[in-house]
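Hi everyone,

Forwarding the result from last night's run.
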Amino acid sequence: MTLKIGICTKQDLDEAMKVQKREQYEEERKRRIFNAKQRLYGLDIDMLERQILEKKKQKSMQLECDKRFEDQEQLQKRLISAQAKELEKKQRVADSDLNYYRCRYQRMEQRREFDLNDPNYLKKARPTRVADDDITLGVSSAQIFHGEDLYNSDRKVRQRDQQRAWLDQQVQERKRAEDARKTADNMLMENLGCRDKHLEEMAKSDHLMRNQVIQQVRQFNMNMAKQKQLDREREKREKYEDDMAEIYNMLSSDMLTENPDVAQSRTDPNKKIAFMYRGMTPEELRVFRLGQEQQLTLATQRKTEAQMMDKQWEQYAINMDRTLVLGHIEDERRRKAQFDELMRANAKLAVEQDQQRKDALAALSNAVSDEFYDQFNKNSR
């Protein structure tokens, strides 16, 4: 496409490119839509399936690649770990050898200047003088100083002897105390033996006395058991006599003899005592049956009246239904007549419209040319 423009700016060129792309896209779309052999309606199933297979293949390849990367990473981690362990082992060996060499060949006392830095130098050095007749002292050396302890060794020997004597004295005192403790323990054991013997005698006497008490209690319990047996027999006999008297009283009571006067309430003459009432008398039964017959007669009369009322309502409903049906039939007849009238009017209008349509077609009849059909399919929209 050639652009016939005298002076073009950047915006004009961009707009021209957009127009050209739009026209090209429109031409391609026309070729796709107006080609009956290649036109597709809906989705392209084959293309979608092909895209799905390609995506699955790419996904499997990606997974396999990721797995290979993970395996390579694990291998590299193992190699790095093994190398780190090996370096650590070598470093430990080197540190051990270095420490051994230092301890064996580079000790502090093996230094050349150790005598200058010896912490025990003053302990190893000789005193300034040993005694007044020390040969290391010169003519001008002082001989006596205040606070000087020249008899330190002798005094320490005497102190050790004195400490030894004190220790021997403490040992003798502890031995005498141990002997006194043993004597006291022996006396205590003898006293405990006497006490145990006395307690044993007291236990024997207490056991004998307890046996005597148990025998007396056993005898007392036996006597009490005999007395209880006699009391139970007496109570059983008395209970039997009371039961027989109660049975006799019950047999001769008003409840079992069915005395009607007992069931009458003292406060209300028309009220009966429920738990003592034994039934109605023949006269009361006759009155009750007569009341039932009267109630039955009244119920039958009410039922007959109700049936007559229902029949009257049914007849009234039938008459109303008949009236409604006749009214409905009359309405249907009237509606049918109106419908027939409407159909005749519509038929008349249809004939008139048909005649008007024919007249219009005769007045506007023209032949359709090819130009009418060529105006279609000019645009894909």
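The helical segments are 10-34, 45-105, 114-117, 121-124, 152-251, 254-257, 282-363, 370-374.

Cheers,
N.
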